[in-house]
Design goal:
The complex is a heterodimer of chains A (469) and B (222). By secondary structure, chain A is of the alpha/beta class. Chain A is 33% helix and 16% strand. Classes of the chains: A alpha/beta (469), B alpha/beta (222).
Amino acid sequence: MPGTGLTIFDRIWARHRILENVAGEALLYVDQHFLNETSFICFQELERLGRTVRRPKQSFLAMDHTVPTHHREAGIPNAENREAIEYLDRFARKTGMAYIGVDDPRQGIGHIVASEIGLTLPGILIAGDDSHTTTNGAMGALSLGIGLSEVTHVLATQALWQAPYRKLRVTFSGSMALAVDAKDLVLELIHRIGAAGAIGHFVEFAGAAVSALSMAQRMTICNMAVEAGARAAIIAPDETTFAYLKGRPLAPQGKDWDVAVTEWRALRTDEEAVFDREVEIPASEVAPTVTWGTSPQDAIRVDGRIPDPKDAGSAQESARAEAALHYMGLAPGMRVTDIAIDQVFIGSCTNGRLEDLRAAAAIARNGRAVVPAIVVPGSQEVKREAESEGLHLVFRAAGFEWREPGCSMCLGMNGDLVEGGKRCASTTNRNFMGRQGKGARTHLMGPAMAAAAALTGRISDVRTLFERA
Amino acid sequence: MEPFLRIEGIAVPFDRANVDTDQIIPARFIMKPRQFDYSKVLFHDLRNGPAAEPGFTLDRPEYRGAKILVTAENFACGSAREQAVYALQDTGIRALVGPSFGGIFYTNCIKNGILPAIVDSTVVSALCAALLRSPGSVLAVDLPQQTIATSDGKCFPFRIGEGDKAQLMGGWDDITRTLEHEQAILAHERATAATATWTRPSFDEAIGLRRPIPFAKARDER
């Protein structure tokens, strides 16, 4: 069949376009709306406007940003967080929303839970009150992060206005070297194109290295596409996707499954399709990578040295890099592996899935943490599965703390904070100033690298970790 | 929402690249109702405490009452938190001028009646140079004309999407406007419900609240 020159975005967009206005903006139908407790202002606004949740069953509310990761029996200590959660709990039960509360056996980070229960499916359109809603593109959904005003709009209308977007294809060709993680691929991408590199773009990830990735790894790269400014990220569904989805509670069953898979196979970008931009990165060029600064673009190979701000492209960028180094307490020319760390965080919507914990445990089982390290599974399901494999015992034996699921130290809203001036090796997505706590210094890296840092107390290269042993 | 046509006001040169919304408003302040005066927490940690920047731009007396912020690339990237817009809005900022903005932040601005005007980096440099020469000077931002005029008579064009422009100028209530298309939304729902049932699973039936049993068991039962 001859191609039509369409991208996967064009196909999903067309399927959800209700109408267009004179300015060329489309009113898109939202199949699933993702919410969390930080959305509470929207529900208050909805009530103030005298409006109702138009489609409660398509409104998926998961408590994650502020939930405690230990001593949960004591309740939620922060009054503002507690009141928001209690308010939303009442609201969700009253309206019959798809709701996963703090005590739910499936509780966890929304993006992780949505994939586990099969809510995120290829070809659907998701809008979510969280910038990391891009994560869900890994399943072939068009998944857009939105702000509170748009959330209120979607609650009331189940639709979203969107201007047409530019399209960027990122091809990771070839294959990854041993001990290289999906996290390294995406950090390398952000380093190459910059934190503003994909602004205004839908990004399709393609190439042999992407096809070879597991679903967890795909979620990691789609998750962090937003750190390059991407509006959405997507990976066309394939056999890996279908194998992952089959049998999940909300995935189609029986005959419906066969029909769905047939439709999903057509969700592809035609060979003739033209993107506004193309970026190709040979995956073999990517090494284990960490960040040294206060933007995810400040990424560098673990065997490298801290760059000199003087070598940055512009005066403005030099000033920014200089301020970043000052904040981070680092000097140009220093070896990355000479950076001593104070603590380790393993978790988040970027790297809180079972596979991430397995990768971290595989390192942890070889030694003992010399700095405080906490492991926060992305969901209760991840926690149960990890425990059934004994990963919690591995972590505990190595001196890591094993916690309850939530967003936790990625942004510290629940009180899991990094103290000012302390340095954290973190599997999260943002090394912004103060992100993990006022004055906290964050080094982003993959789960195996974070576990290695816990064992040595320094940023360490997983590839050479045991050579001296 | 207050329609945006033309504003004139003190402009602040703030040409730092990649300013993220965690800097604009740290996460610990976002669980407050909209009635809270969010201006109290704008750039909180850059302005308060031992690690504060001495002489932080926005605290200089010449910029008191500013309505316009001139920003560098990728302003307000990162977290979707619309409270970043609330903090600027409650401070009195009505327009931002910069080469690019975080995508979600950009839309959040439009929805709150704040203009994110897009200009070339060279225009940001020219504006910042002019504002630094005479701190506290005024810019005039004209949305219908899509221009930014300095007090010494220079005029620069800016870019904005047609739909965003119309929305700002109209000061529309977005929800009311969308629900004028209620029949079209309903028709779309009916059509897709018939052809692709899997796009809208019944959460209740599959794993609903009424049967809060462990997920693994729910899966086995199916």
